Structure formats: structure tokens, C-alpha cells
TrEMBL record, chains A, B:
This is inositol-phosphate phosphatase. Its cofactor is Mg(2+). Keywords: Hydrolase, Magnesium, Metal-binding. The gene is suhB. The keyword Ribosomal protein does not apply. It catalyses: a myo-inositol phosphate + H2O = myo-inositol + phosphate.
Amino acid sequence: MEIYKFAYQIIEEAGRIIRDSIDDELHIETKSNPNDLVTNIDKETEAFLTKQILNTYPHHRILGEEGQGRDIEDEAGTIWIIDPIDGTLNFVHQQENFAISIGIFIDGVKYAGFVYDVMNKKMYHCKVGNGAWMNETQLKPLKNSELKSSLISTNPIWLTKDKLADIYKLIIDDARSTRAYGSAALDFANVAKGITSAYLTMRLHPWDFAGGLILVEEVGGVVTNQLGEPLNILEANSILIGNKSIHDELLSQYFLPHTSLLKKIHTERFKKNK
Amino acid sequence: MEIYKFAYQIIEEAGRIIRDSIDDELHIETKSNPNDLVTNIDKETEAFLTKQILNTYPHHRILGEEGQGRDIEDEAGTIWIIDPIDGTLNFVHQQENFAISIGIFIDGVKYAGFVYDVMNKKMYHCKVGNGAWMNETQLKPLKNSELKSSLISTNPIWLTKDKLADIYKLIIDDARSTRAYGSAALDFANVAKGITSAYLTMRLHPWDFAGGLILVEEVGGVVTNQLGEPLNILEANSILIGNKSIHDELLSQYFLPHTSLLKKIHTERFKKNK
């Protein structure tokens, strides 16, 4: 079976398992801080996906949020980058508005991206070159838009950080309005679908953006870090995505004038993390 | 027919009409500023609801976002407070995530509240004393929670305003995480449903909060302005809602220490507006 179709099937199946257990009591642990949660369902979903993939493709490699493949340092072969539940806080508090995210790369080349909005049963999916889709509906190429007449999304927490707040304040003031949804993968899907025109955040891991990156590029969106550089798919990155026009505007008018500050933040935030 | 059942039916019907025309081209105008939009659908929906109500109840009064009843200055009789489309920016940009909101008051006493998530066909409704419901599912009484382990919602724009930013920064820093959904009525429904634990914003009109106010109180939530006072249903108000515990915490620890600043802002922002 084509890897793309196989991926689609196991993600749908993982989503069905999550929906079936959505009312069960969760076992919740904290990770890096009291608000960085992981549940038994995150772990079980990653284990399920890993088992399915390796049973069928024993030579594929997997990089997953819950521990798979942290030793991967090169892009050789087929790599699956997996977030079993993106938006764990939403999962825990809302029992909705979370996603399974998978990006598949072959020898470093983007192959396919998936973001599955589990509770709404909306699968955002694309095999590179064949268009991006929500279930059976093809997503349209992104229309260009200006910041002042666009909805954007970002986490308000960046406005509480010294120096960084100055950059984000200007953007939020100049945007038509700002949203915060709490799942990076769905934020990418929202940009791909045109629900928002841009999404920006200071730090995502590969599993947060790998699936969405491929979707957004497939509809003509631009995906870079906040210095305008391509994302390294094996490392944490800052994120700036949007239609071509708003991406240019945000990068040139709001981020590049602060290159030295952003470089410093990048160095400080990312040095200890893959 | 009972007013409550009648209201339910005409809101559902208005929602069906909106869904049927969701792909039609909109006529968009601006109101108070370039981001304050109104469409033909806002106006047509208010006209539809007004006609239905007055045909059946000629003596009822209506206060609506799009112009109905701006001369209402007392709470005598039965008053319908209507927002035909709450979250107009979402309606225009997303074609989803907006709501019809109606609160009904009889001689100033809360009678029934409705928030209809049109595209998801989720009707949040309650007749006071009979519980709050999402479609046929009764909403549970709100659980108490602390800010540090809660999701809250607010618009990030408040973090860009001098002085006010200092209050909002502390709250957002101390919350587990912050969301911004872009529809006040749905923000109230989300608190009633437990999707978020609190919602705060600097200024809503009666049509933005009338339906949600009744829903949130029905599940044991607390609804006040940011000075801890009850909302005046005929005037613009600042808003602080949540489960009892987080409302107490936000009010006593974050807002009341800034009473004089908030009073000044209230006076400046609300003096020219009903």
C-alpha cells in the first residue's frame, strides 16, 4: 500500500480509539513545567502509531513527541515526525480542539502531511504535489492579504515577555484581530484552510509543525522561522507562516528590524533543545 | 406557545437561513472603525427575528445590535436583547465560529438565554431554573478551579493598551493558558460548558452578553463587570465571568487592587455609549 494511504488509515484509526476513550479518566503527568502536560492517551497513541508503522515498514524511522527517535540526527531514509496529541491542554480541559499531527519526509524531502482534528473528524492531508485536502474537499490556494485586514493567531503569552512584547504588540495592534486556539497543528491547518491568514509563535518542536508545514506549503503558504529561514525539521524553531503577502509584510516590517534580538532569543531558547 | 419554545424555533430557523446563504457574496460595511464590520446577513437576520417576534408578541420590545430599540431606557415588560451575528469578523473571514445570541428579560428579571453556534448546529439554551443545555445535553454545574490550573479566554488586544496591559499581563502569566476565539457569545457558552474557566474583556454591549449571562449563571457561574458589580443589561459593561472560585480570585487579586484605574477606564470608555 502507498505510504500516504497507509498513514491516512492509521491516523483515522488512532483518532477513533481516542474518541472511544474520551470520557475515560486520564492519567496526567507534568513534563518540563506544571503546564506542560502529558497523559496516558498521548503515550498510548504514539505507541499505537509506532507499532503500526514499524510492523509495516521496519526500516522507517520515527521522531515522536513522547520519546520516539530522540537520537535521530540526519534526514536519511523515511522519517515520520509524530505528535500523537497536539494541543494536550485542550485535550485535557476541553476534550476537543486537539489534533494528531504527522509529517513524512523521504531523504529530507517533504512527502506527506497530516493534521487530524480528532473530535470534529476533520482530516487535513496532502501528498506533496497533489493538493491539500480537508477530508474529501480540496483546499484552495491561499489568497494574499494585508495584516490590517487579516485575522492572525498567536499565543498572548508572548505579550508578557520583555522585549519580545514590543514586537508582538505592534503586530497585534496592526492586525484586524487575533485568535489563540491552543494547538499549533490546528493553527497550521487553519492557515491552510484560510481561517486565519498568519500564525506566529516563538518555539515549536518538529512534531508540532511537521505535518502542518507540508499542508501550508501545498496551498502556496510560506513557512519559515522568524528570521525568514527555512525550518530545520529535526530541531525546535520559531515560526512565522502565512499567505505570501502577509508573510512578507510580517517578516520585513516587524521581525527583520529586530534581527539581533531575535537571534539572541533563538540562541538562548534553542541551545539546549533539539 | 411558550416564549422559550418560540424563541428556540425562530433562532434555529434564522440559523438555517444563514447556513443556506453561507457561500453567497457578502455586502460588508464598516461601523465605528475599519475592523467593526456589519454585513447584509447581520441586518437581514435581525430583521427576520424582529419580524417573527413582533408578529407573535406585538407588545414585546427588542434591543438589537443592528439598530432595534436604541431608545429603550427602562426594563418594563418583555425585552429581547438580540445579536443576530456575534463574532462578525469570524463570520466574514471564517464562515464559522459565530453565534446568534438572545437574552429575554421580563420586567428586568432574567427569563431565558440562547447562544446558537450556527455552523456547528449547537444550541446553548436555558430557561432560568430549568438548567442550561447544549441541544439535548444538560450542561453540568461548573467546577471550581484556580487560575494557575485553568484555561481562560480574552482578546490579546488588551495587552497592547497602556496601564491595562499591566493587569492583563499578570493574569495571562499566571493562567495555565489563554485562548481567544473572537465571539463573546461563544466565550460565554464556552465558560458555561467548561471549555474555559473564565472570560474577561473590557467592553461588551448588551447584545453581546445578554444570552450568555443567563446561561453562565444557570450553571452556577458568576457574571459581573471588572469591579465586581452586576451587569446593567441596557448598557455597555466590562466583563468578568467564571466559576465561583476563579471569579473570586481574579476579582480580588487582579482587578480590585486597580479599582481606581478601572473606574477611570469605565468612565472614559462607556460615557458616550449605551
